[in-house]
Structures are given as C-alpha cells and as structure tokens.
C-alpha cells in the first residue's frame, strides 16, 4: 500500500505541474461568455455579442462574436492584445437572435457592464435568457 500512495503522490504532483503549465495558455484570453435558454434549458447558439471598452466616457467597440453550438464564446477579447484595467460592456444582441427564431422578446439588447481590475484573472459572463427576463453573474 505504501508504494501505491507514493505513486498516487507522484501522479498528483505531475498532474498539478501539468495543470499549472497549461493554465497560462487557457488564461490567454481574459473574457468569455455563455448564454443558456431558460425556456428550453439548453445552450443558446447564434447570439451575437459585442465587447466594448469605456475610454474617457465613450464606448469603443473592441470585438464581436457569435455564440457557438454550446452557447459559448470562449475568447471575446481581441486576440494578441493584453487586457487592460477598466470598465467594459458586453452587449448580447438578443433582439436579433429572437427575430431569427421568429419569437418576440422584451429585450432587444442586454448590456452587462463590468470592471476589470486584475488583468491576470479570467472574466466569464454567463447570461440566463428568456424572452421576457434574464439573469447574469460573474462566472468562472
């Protein structure tokens, strides 16, 4: 049994090393989003999402993406650019999405404004969506 626990400790150490080594690559893009449909309980593919940054009181568009089959955009921040501290906004273009599926909605856009304080952290913004309501929070 002692050799099994030593093997377990070695495997655990190797896993911790590989997870740590892989972490910077996974953290390369600091912003991701996820949209889940509260009516159906499934991810919402095909939602356009815009990322803006507040610069001296003006919103400047940085990037746009469309949620994939899993309702995700895993890398919304512009590729090759270092994240900056500041105030950002993701705008979920829900009106366009609902028009495409021929369903009415009360919210044509859902803006979520947030602050990046620590540029080494990842910021995940999930959106739980229905035609007449939504909820969001800081995910991981």
From TrEMBL:
This is 5-hydroxyisourate hydrolase. Catalyzes the hydrolysis of 5-hydroxyisourate (HIU) to 2-oxo-4-hydroxy-4-carboxy-5-ureidoimidazoline (OHCU). It comes from Pantoea septica. Residues 26-140 form the Transthyretin/hydroxyisourate hydrolase domain. Homotetramer. Its EC number is 3.5.2.17. It catalyses: 5-hydroxyisourate + H2O = 5-hydroxy-2-oxo-4-ureido-2,5-dihydro-1H-imidazole-5-carboxylate + H(+). It holds the Pfam family Transthyretin. Residues 1-21 form the signal peptide. Transmembrane segments: none annotated. Keywords: Hydrolase, Purine metabolism, Signal. NCBIfam families: hdxy_isourate. Belongs to the transthyretin family. 5-hydroxyisourate hydrolase subfamily. GO terms for molecular function: hydrolase activity.
């Amino acid at each position: 049994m002692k050799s099994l626990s030593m093997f377990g400790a070695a495997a655990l150490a190797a896993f911790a090393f590989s997870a740590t080594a892989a972490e910077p690559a996974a953290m390369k893009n600091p912003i991701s989003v996820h949209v889940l449909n509260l009516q159906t309980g499934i991810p919402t593919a095909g939602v356009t999402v815009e990322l803006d940054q507040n610069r001296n009181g003006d919103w400047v568009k940085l990037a746009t993406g469309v949620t994939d089959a899993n309702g995700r955009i895993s890398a919304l921040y512009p590729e090759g650019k270092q994240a900056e501290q500041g105030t950002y906004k993701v705008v979920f273009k829900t009106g366009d999405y609902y028009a495409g599926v021929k369903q009415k909605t009360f919210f044509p856009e859902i803006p979520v404004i947030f602050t990046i304080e620590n540029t080494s952290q990842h910021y995940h913004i999930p959106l739980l969506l229905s035609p007449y309501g939504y909820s969001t929070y800081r995910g991981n």
